[in-house]
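Ticket #4471: structure output looks truncated?

Reporter: J.K.
Steps to reproduce: submitted the chain below (202 residues) through the standard prediction queue, then opened the result file.
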Amino acid sequence: MRLRLAAAATAALAATAFGGAATVDELDVKRHRGRYSLAADARLAATPESIYAVLTDYDDNRFGRISGVYKESRYLPPADDGAPVIYTRMEGCVLRYCMSLKRTERLETDAPYRIKSIAIPESSNFKYSTSEWLLERDGDGTKMTYLLEMEPDFFVPPIVGPWYLKRTLSQGGLRAVARIERLARELDGRPVEPLPADPRPR
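Returned output as attached by the reporter:
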């Protein structure tokens, strides 16, 4: 049970990278010792400007609507050098076992084409974590590249490897991608479909 919970919590972090015409074209997950890396390409039927707005909307909680695992998301006071700082809290449960994942991160942005977050370890559940969204205009849509590298500061059983994360992401990633796309299309004023529901914990 603890193995499944740790796997679900770790995969949930990665799954928020993605967001119906959205497609995930490439997905690669690797692990080296205790550090995981993920690279993915997706195509969304929305503009880079609206996708960027969704992925940086922590206070009004569009970001939190990408996945049901997010329980809190907000901006904190900026860093001394003026860089934006964000806080997110996720929860993953399997039956009566739950885990809370907390991250405080610096944001580096180049609107509307790049968003990079860097975790502050002393205020996070991660020894190391960086994520980056690269948005490229593709006709009237967007090609989105997502890069994630993380080292959790909690135990993840060795059996929870890239194969498990890739399987979980292939099953749940499109749901999150569809949500990003729908929220972005709302900002674009385009027709939208109902948001897909989150699966019940098993």
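Triage note (M.O.): checked the attachment and the full token line is present. The radius of gyration is 16 Å.
Status: closed, working as intended.
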